[in-house]
Write a structure and sequence with these properties.
Elements: H1 3-14, H2 61-78, H3 103-106, H4 116-121, H5 144-151, H6 156-172, H7 183-188, H8 199-219, H9 231-244, H10 254-267, H11 287-296, H12 312-319, H13 323-326, H14 330-347, H15 353-370, H16 376-397, H17 400-403, H18 409-430, H19 434-437, H20 443-473, H21 483-506, H22 513-534, H23 541-565, H24 573-578, H25 585-613, H26 627-644, H27 651-674, H28 680-683, H29 707-719, H30 729-761, H31 766-772, H32 777-802, H33 822-838, H34 841-865, H35 877-892, H36 900-913, H37 915-918, H38 921-935, H39 958-966, H40 971-981
Protein name: MHD1 domain-containing protein
InterPro entries: Munc13_1, Munc13_dom-2, PATROL1_C, unc-13_homologue
């Protein structure tokens, strides 16, 4: 073939137009298909990047193509086992007289044998054109080598120069295979300026080979470079210098010798340091992949970019001879060929569907190969390719209604197959946990599920926008159906269209494709319906039309979903559960809920306002509870009556919401009523640090004549009640009465509500009645907890605050015999009378019991943590016993007070510890040592550790015994504590 003919073919190939088709419909009928075939828009270079990495070297496509052709010719020459080469001019060359090349390279191309590769890939065979390069010529049949030259767009002049170069290389290195050479080095020394038409072409050719050396040995080496190795930088320095000024490549050139030594040493590296048989100069990724891709592109007819040549079997056979040089194996080949087929399909506007089918079939082989991929570069290449394919496919699959229709749904199936294969390979290849998770997660099922839902959402949105646009441009807006009514009918059409066309394809990977599609449409319409409902305040004709249409749509969709999922594992239950119902009564329900929210918000404001004004006056009424409590109960009762008067049929469904709201209001009232009243920790003093008070200290001397005056003064101060004090004992009692009243009225309110529900709605479902009867659980629980907290607050407030002057500041301070419990009992009795007269009789015992417990706790606190102002002699134990008896008698009150067994229960701890005060000091010390050793055995052998204070007093607990010793007023205790813990004898 002459150069004119070649140029004509090349221009013809490059002038193929890429026509974009767009689907246009002139009708609103969803079942009517467009007459013009629709094709997705082709990707531009920016949208569809090269997946295998950039070369980062300035080499044009034609230069890379010439390099790939040189490797191909050299590989075919190398396969002849080094037989002598003979150059024959192009005018004399024939298939039998060419230089010694591989038999497959010199073999004549077949014209009748069917292509096995095409059959395997699913490519259709085509009848050859009359001007095909392989149809024969006047002098003889065309060889595979000649076919490759034309397919790769290599001129005869360049082909002759390449063959001549290999003759010269073989003459100088007889028997040496190409893979053991650095090809650019060999070629650089075979030609001079005189071998080219002009010096410029020679310089371009030289620069190409130098750039290849840089790309293959420095930029993309087969083996990673050592940062300490200076050879790569030296090689780059020589190459960059030669790019500016052509270098002398003669055999005796010093610069050429240095270049050869550097390049050879870098190319002949190995992982283990041995001398390899293969030179690594073109087998680094992505250089090798780019060169191999160029070779594979020769499988496409230069006159028809979408057509795979019939001689693909012979072409692939000789291309595979480059594997050893480019470090390509079957896995790499399948990956690269998949990319070539797929890229050609995309770059030619997807007009040849066979290419997509072939890429899909080859990707199936890649899926099998991927399990064996272990080389990092191959793994990265695979991931890049699959990621790009998946991204391109998903742009169409996520909106497949825009790209596919009844007549091209087979393309959708191939695209689905490719996308899912890519997804599965990526997951299996990149996830070490895939084998563990594969039973739990079906990657293909999950992906198709996503495509269905996304595409249905897109189709729904387009239909909605079309209706809105049509309504805006329509002049007949009066008496027209609401948009949502029309949309409901169109959504039904979408659903049946989906089932008829797309689900047949999708069911291969998703058994309930139709069900998922209608569920997605159901959710889309439901979202619009919800927005519509939120914008209305009352029922209107338009609203009724929308609700009727929505109800019909829902029945159609649910029926389709049930029919499609009937054979699934759960019989479609999960799918139906996903389809949140939207009945006609939803509008009414929302309006009633709005009414409920308004009433609840109004009640909340009322509660907050009245609580701020409440003074908790015990004389406000004879029942001694707060007026605000009465009012909040009355408001709740009125709200219930108004609710049952509403003309709605769904009282049972909405009653729980009303009750929950009222329950929350009442709970808020209760929490505010007890807020700030305090608890045990609010009033109990901080436990003082352990000290030692010896006999004769300043605290032992107490002037008795000053005591009554001091007690009277403190009583006068603490006993004065501020009129604005809403937390005094009477006010706290009123709070308890109020909570008790609320708790009692809740039962009445719940029974009245159930009665109204039965009478007005004729509900006889006992289970429903039981559920509705638990509507005030939060308030009921808050009442009980509030009464408990208030009772405790009263108790510890009385003992440690109201009576602090006769208890904490007086009892057993200084001399025990002169600071006993009588003053405390007298004032405590007065307060108990106030409590008994104020608190409701149903909770009175609970409150007084708390006061008793607080007094016992306080008594024990005085004995064990009374601070340095208190100390006890062994003889004081009888006084303490007697005082405890007086305290217990106060609460027993000759049988009119608390039950004796209740008093005994709460005084058990105190009575168990009092014997320690009767115990001799020496025995106490011995008990303490045993207790410490039992609790701190490892550390107690050399020195007794100081036991921590737990506050859980017990006669066998080390901290309790320690505190009895600390407050024991004798020398032995002082000496023991000084010796073991260095406690001071005096403060």
């Amino acid at each position: 073939m002459d150069m004119v003919s070649y140029a004509h073919r090349d221009a013809t190939a490059q002038s193929l137009s890429r026509t974009k088709y767009h689907e246009k419909s002139t009708t609103n009928n969803l079942h009517e298909k467009p007459k013009i075939p629709f094709l997705p828009s082709s990707y531009s270079d920016d949208e569809f990047p090269y997946p295998f990495g950039e070369l980062d070297v300035d080499l044009t496509e034609s230069e890379l193509r010439e390099t790939a052709y040189e490797i191909l010719v050299g590989a075919c020459r190398s396969s002849t086992s080094g037989r002598p080469l003979k150059f024959v001019s192009s005018s004399e060359r024939s298939s039998s007289s060419m230089m010694s090349l591989s038999p497959s390279f010199q073999r004549s191309v077949t014209s009748t044998a069917a292509s096995k590769v095409k059959k395997a890939l699913g490519l259709k065979s085509r009848k050859k054109n009359s001007d095909s390069v392989v149809s024969g010529n006047k002098k003889g049949s065309t060889t595979v080598g000649e076919l490759m030259r034309v397919q790769m767009r290599v001129s005869e002049t360049t082909d002759s120069r390449v063959r001549r170069a290999f003759l010269r290389v073989a003459a100088g290195q007889l028997g040496r295979r190409l893979e053991s050479m650095v090809l650019p080095l060999e070629l650089l020394q075979q030609f001079k300026t005189s071998d080219f038409p002009n010096p410029h072409e020679y310089e371009v050719w030289q620069r190409r080979n130098l750039k290849l050396l840089e790309a293959g040995l420095v930029l993309h080496p087969y083996l990673p470079l050592d940062e300490t190795d200076t050879r790569p930088r030296q090689l780059q320095h020589i190459i960059h210098g030669a790019l500016v000024k052509p270098m002398d490549t003669g055999k005796h050139s010093e610069s050429m010798q240095v270049l050869r030594n550097l390049a050879t040493s870098l190319a002949c590296r190995s992982f283990d340091g041995s001398s390899p048989e293969i030179c690594h100069w073109a087998d680094g990724t992505p250089l090798n992949i780019r060169l191999y891709q160029i070779l594979l592109e020769a499988c496409f007819d230069v006159n028809d970019q979408t057509s795979v040549i019939e001689e693909i079997d012979e072409v692939l056979e000789i291309i595979k001879k480059t594997w050893v040089i480019l470090d390509i194996d079957q896995i790499f080949h399948n990956i690269c060929f998949s990319w070539v087929l797929f890229h050609r399909y995309v770059s030619t506007s997807q007009v040849e569907n066979d290419l997509l089918f072939a890429a899909d079939n080859l990707l199936s082989e890649v899926a099998n190969d991927a399990k064996a991929v272990k080389h990092p570069s191959c793994s990265q290449t695979l991931s890049s390719l699959l990621g790009l394919i998946l991204g391109w496919a998903e742009k169409r699959l996520l909106a497949y209604h825009d790209s596919f229709y009844r007549d091209n749904v087979d393309i959708m199936q191939s695209l689905l197959s490719m996308g899912l294969s890519a997804t599965k390979i990526l997951v299996e290849h990149n996830s070490s946990n895939y084998q563990k998770k594969k039973k739990e997660v079906d990657v293909e099922f999950s992906s198709v599920d996503t495509y269905i839902r996304a595409s249905m959402l897109s189709a729904f949105s387009q239909e909605k926008e079309r209706l809105i646009s049509s309504r805006k441009s329509s002049k007949k807006q009066q008496n027209s159906l609401p948009i949502l009514s029309i949309l409901a009918q169109n959504v039904t059409d979408l659903a049946f269209n989906e089932k008829e066309i797309y689900s047949a394809v999708l069911k291969r990977w998703h058994p309930i494709a139709t069900g998922v599609a209608v569920a997605a449409l159901h959710a889309c319409y439901g979202s619009e319906l919800k927005k519509f409902v939120s914008g209305i305040s009352e029922l209107t004709p338009d609203a009724l039309q929308v609700l009727i249409a929505a109800d019909k749509l829902e029945k159609d969709l649910v029926q389709m979903a049930v029919a499609d999922a009937v054979d699934s594992e759960d019989g479609g239950k999960s799918l139906i559960k996903e389809m949140t119902p939207y009945e006609a009564e939803a509008v009414i329900a929302n309006l009633v809920k709005s009414w409920i929210r308004t009433r609840i918000d109004r009640l909340k404001e009322w509660v907050n306002r009245n609580l701020q004004q409440e003074v908790w006056n015990p004389h406000a009424n004879k029942e001694r509870f707060a007026p605000s409590g009465v009012e909040v109960l009355r408001s709740i009762d009125e709200t219930f009556e108004a609710f049952f008067l509403l003309p709605i049929p769904m009282h049972p469904a909405l009653l729980p919401e009303l009750m929950n709201g009222l329950d929350g209001c009442l709970q808020n009232y209760i929490l505010e009523a007890i807020s700030g009243c305090g608890c045990r920790s609010t009033f109990v003093p901080t436990m003082p640090a352990l000290t030692r008070c010896s006999a004769g200290s300043k605290f032992s001397v107490f002037r008795k004549k000053e005591r009554p005056a001091m007690v009277l003064l403190k009583k006068s101060h603490n006993g004065t009640t501020n009129g604005d004090d809403s937390f005094s004992i009477p006010q706290l009692c009123v709070r308890i009465n109020t909570l008790h009243c609320i708790r009692k009225e809740l039962d009445v309110l719940e029974k009245r509500t159930i009665s109204q529900l039965r009478d007005n709605i004729r509900v006889h479902d006992d289970n429903l009645v039981n559920v509705l009867g638990k509507g005030f659980e939060l308030s009921a629980a808050a009442c009980l907890e509030g009464i408990q907290q208030l009772s405790e607050a009263i108790a510890y407030r009385v003992i440690f605050h109201e009576l602090s002057h006769v208890f904490w500041d007086y009892l057993y301070v200084g001399d025990v015999s002169s600071s006993r419990i009588e003053p405390f009992l007298q004032e405590l009795e007065e307060i108990l009378e106030i409590i008994s007269a104020t608190v409701h009789d149903r909770v009175r015992t609970r409150v007084i019991t708390k006061v008793m417990k607080a007094s016992f706790d306080g008594f024990l606190f005085v004995l064990l943590a009374g601070g340095p102002s208190r100390s006890f002699l062994l003889a004081d134990a009888a006084i303490i016993d007697e005082d405890l008896k007086f305290l217990m008698d106060l609460f027993w009150s000759d049988g009119d007070g608390l039950p004796a067994d209740l008093i005994d229960k709460f005084s058990t701890t105190l009575k168990g510890i009092l014997p320690l005060f009767h115990t001799d000091t020496a025995i106490l010390i011995e008990q303490f040592e045993h207790a410490v050793q039992d609790n701190f055995a490892p550390s107690a052998k050399s020195r007794l550790p100081l036991p921590p204070t737990s506050g859980n007093w017990s006669p066998t607990e080390p901290s309790t015994i320690m505190r009895v010793l600390c407050y024991r007023n004798d020398k032995m205790a002082t000496k023991f504590l000084k010796k073991n813990y260095n406690f001071p004898k005096k403060l």
